[in-house]
Amino acid sequence: MPDTQHAAPKTGITEEGYLTDSWYLAAPSTDLAPGKQHRIMVLGEPVVVGRTPAGEAFALRDICPHRLVPLSAGQQLETDGEWTLQCPYHGWRFGTDGGCKLMPSLTNDSPYDPSKVKVRRYPVHEANGAVYLYVAHNPRADTPPIVPPPEFGPLPDKPGFVIHDVFNAHMDDAVVGLMDPAHVPFVHNQWWWRPPSVGLKLKEKPFIPTERGWAIDRHPPSSNSKLYRWVFGDDVETEIRFQLPGYRWEIISNDKARLLTLTCLTPEAPKRTRITQFTWWTGAPLLHLAVPIAKPMARKFLRQDGDMVDLQNQGMAHQKAMMWIDDIDIQAKWYQRLKREWTECRSEGRDFANPIEARVLRWMS
Ligand code: FES
Ligand SMILES: [Fe+2]
Questions:
Q1: DSSP string, 268-291
Q2: Ligand 1: which of 48, 84, 85, 89 to mutate, most ligand atoms within 8 Å of CB?
Q3: Which of 127, 193, 312, 323 has the fewest CB atoms in 10 Å of its CB?
Q4: Which of ligand 1's atoms lies nearest the C-alpha of 88?
């Protein structure tokens, strides 16, 4: 469901319909080894993400401004006491702030000042085993981010496990697919989660607006969520939240334990969205033993959604229009409204005003 209006150039959104002035997941912390870097795609642009031998995560545009070679193919070296990334072609060295610190070919009396050359730097935030980067609308602006990095409450330093997948879908379709409440009994109907024999039940959930998103406030989980009970015992509550540009998290907790599963969406290309899912928990030591089972289960879950996207693409190759019905597709509509509000508030230079009103959504699933 990409935004198809392209009237005047807007702030806060790219032509492909990706939100800017926003934080996206760059990589799990463990993907960034000290002294190493690699190339990722973010909002259709190449980015080199890495970590200095001193432990600092960084993200730069992965194009050397000289002859456009990827900086990710270079190596990290110390230059005047700071860690720099050296381009593999002519050895220009860039600091983690994006500034060029050295051009080896310059003679001592050269009037050329390397520090005038800069490569785009993306502000980076690392917390609880995840590295996020900020994509400013203006690639040349080096002003501080206008929103704080995503925050998910108290979490352990490291996730219990991380899985990822790539959906052959636009970011918008991937978001909508993952939040869709009515597909669960049809797509995720394996015996250990929700066997078809369970049938459909009435769901009635109170939704409330939150910061740049919405939430189903704390409530007892559906009676068919066997796994929750098995792991946590009774008296558990769940809470589900969505926040722009593409974070969905679910908290399962009782008075002893808390488990948080965060799904992060990073658009790589118009039909390619990277999905990274982190699971953290505290107070449930048995869960550490269950990781070898839980991880493939979570992977299977995500792949089921990815496979549905591939089927959907067979239809999208021939038709654009989709249908949106109440109440199951209201969250999809909210997502579009939030995106619209984001681009309007960024274009008008005002604060974000959440357009969602609290309401109860009802459906069978
Ligand atoms: S291409 Fe990078 S230094 Fe020349
Ligand atoms: Fe799903």
A1: EETTEEEEEEEEEEES-THHHHHH
A2: 89
A3: 323
A4: 2
Please indicate whether residue 64, judged by its CB atom, sits closer than 6 Å to ligand 1.
yes
Ligand 1 pocket member 94 (CB < 6 A): no
Given a cut of 80, whether residue 232 has pLDDT beyond it is no
Distance CA(99)–CA(97), nearest Å, equals 6
Alpha helix ranges (H) inside 151-282? 171-179, 184-187, 226-232
pLDDT confidence bin for 164, thresholds 50/70/90: very high
> How much is the mean pLDDT over the chain?
93
- The bound ligand whose nearest atom lies closest to the alpha carbon of 90 is 1
Share of the chain above pLDDT 70, in %: 95
Tell me how far CA of residue 355 lies from CA of 172, 223, 317, 336, in angstroms: 18, 32, 32, 11
Residue 263 in tokens? 């799904």
Contact (CB, 8 A) for 141 and 80: no
Contact 273, 265 (CB under 8 A): yes
Categorize the per-residue pLDDT at 225 as very low, low, confident or very high, splitting at 50, 70 and 90.
low
Which residue segments constitute the domains of the chain, with CATH numbers given?
A: 22-135 (2.102.10.10), 161-364 (3.90.380.10)
Sign of CA dihedral 54, 59, 65, 71: positive
57 - beta bridge partners? Answer: 51
Residue from 67, 71, 119 to probe ligand 1 pocket by mutation (most atoms less than 8 Å from CB): 67
